[in-house]
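Convert to structure. Protein one:
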Amino acid sequence: MKEPKYLKDLRKEYEYSKTLSIKDFDKRYIDEKEEWSGFYLPSHEYFLEKFLYEGNELKPYKNCSVCDHQNDYVCFDCESLQIQPS
């Protein structure tokens, strides 16, 4: 399956973010917030979008007290566990 442009762009940003020093990373993604969506850091944003693009669905964990099972809300921690690359 060919990766769409937006996913390629997210992957490039994620790969670039891994090359930055902590100081430069903080400046780019924490202080300025200009180069990303503002919701997630590049790694999380890329893996989330890739997970969803591949046809997967986020599901609330049964034992999580933060996830909302009735409204199908998945908390950040449970989301992170589901989208981790294998």
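Protein two, convert as well:
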Amino acid sequence: MALTNASRPAATAAGAIIQCIRRTHGLPARVLAGQVSVHTGQRPCMFHTSAPRAASVKISPSEMSRLLEERIAGWKAQTATEELGRVVSVGDGIARLFGLEGVQAGELVEFQNGMTGMALNLETDNVGVVIFGDDRVRATQSDAYVVYSISLSRMQVHFRRVIICPCVYRSVLEGDSVKRTGRIVDVPIGPGLLGRVVDALGNPIDGKGPIPTKERRRVELKAPGIIPRKSVHEPMMTGKFCAKVLCCPCGCLSSNFVTSTACTGLKCVDALVPVGRGQRELIIGDRQTGKTAVAVDAIINQKEINDSTSDESKKLYCIYVAVGQKRSTVAQIVNALEQRDAMKYTTVVAATASEAAPLQFLAPYSGCAMGEWFRDNGRHCVIIYDDLSKQATAYRQMSLLLRRPPGREAYPVRTLSCVRSLCR
């Protein structure tokens, strides 16, 4: 006889167990004496009971029900259900999907080859998705094939070896499966982003490893209303170049006026167009007039004040969003910030000209979401968008490919609304 219990019984309990079985079944002692050996064992997953039970003893229905309820409560499904769809058509970075009936606007979807996209057009019979990346993969040298051409000239045969590469083929094909992720497009946030260069989705592109943060935030959230907002009454920062200036010409003070300037390090800017905390400022100019230089100088000039204090509420963190610029230009800006030790309080969000249009459109929203973390944690942050005209161009490209009605100069009607939401 084998006895298995939740805890291993003592060796002296074998005789007591035999006597218990004999009394239960009404057997004489000579029947079991010398004929039964007890092997003890332990099984922790068994239900523990203080009294041993014989095989013929029935368990009460209530106890059996309780055991089953405990087993069912601790059961976890090994498989997860996913809502799948199919690619109906694809081209120019836009995919039309069928089958994702529960997809949300702005939700992240994943294609069969691992690429991701964002659902924008929710129509009755299909879903329009912008693909984050290039939906085309160019042929490599191994995909080329050799053709020998033969020509006859002056009774001589000439052989010529020609290497022909096939046409560009697509990485996202019609009929591929696509699944929902169940989450709206979001980016990582937190102090771990300081000193890093990330793309529009928050993925590091500086080769310094993963970002040490677990917090995430949606890229598009409703801005605070008018009532919760404070008036612009405090300078962006205080420094040796700053001077308090009354914006009211009559000398009266009002909560609606900016009563202090911000220190950008440029005296003409601080004197003529002072920047207060919570204020938006446009840098308008023609090409190659120094708009980016003004923004980069303002970032570098925060180093002296940030190094002079240990109070996080007095520091000013910077986020530089590069939209539609060349990779070499972004690399030069990052190099300039590193040489002047300004990257320790700066985050660079880069969506270069070689990136897909959806990433260029999404980059300013990602930078804004990263900056709002500092606002929500009692700190200050300045965000520089360089520049929003390229974001509008990318949004126009996306809208035309999604068959949205165009407006003036083929820009969609919602273009100004996008800029307004960023300013808020």
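The chain has four domains: 2-73, 81-184, 188-224+280-423, 233-277. Confidence is low (pLDDT under 50) at residues 45-52, 144-150, 239-262.
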